[in-house]
Design brief:
Layout (H helix, E strand, L loop, with lengths): L1 H4 L5 H43 L8
């Protein structure tokens, strides 16, 4: 939006839009990182549960 309407907006409005855009990018990155950490922790828990459910996995032929 800033690029398209930069000529119509004043300098202060353009700077405000850039700051808001950067804040949205930072929030999105933080949420993605949080989800990735949660997925890794869930994978470890799932692996432990599967190992507990199959105690004789090492005795396969």
């Amino acid at each position: 939006m800033t690029v398209m309407f930069g000529g119509r907006f004043g300098t202060l409005a353009t700077v405000a839009l850039i700051v808001v855009s950067l804040a949205l990018i930072a929030c999105t990155a933080a949420l993605a990182a949080r989800a990735a950490r949660g997925s890794a922790a869930q994978a470890l828990r799932d692996e432990a549960v599967l190992d507990a459910l199959e105690p004789l996995a090492g005795l396969r032929r």
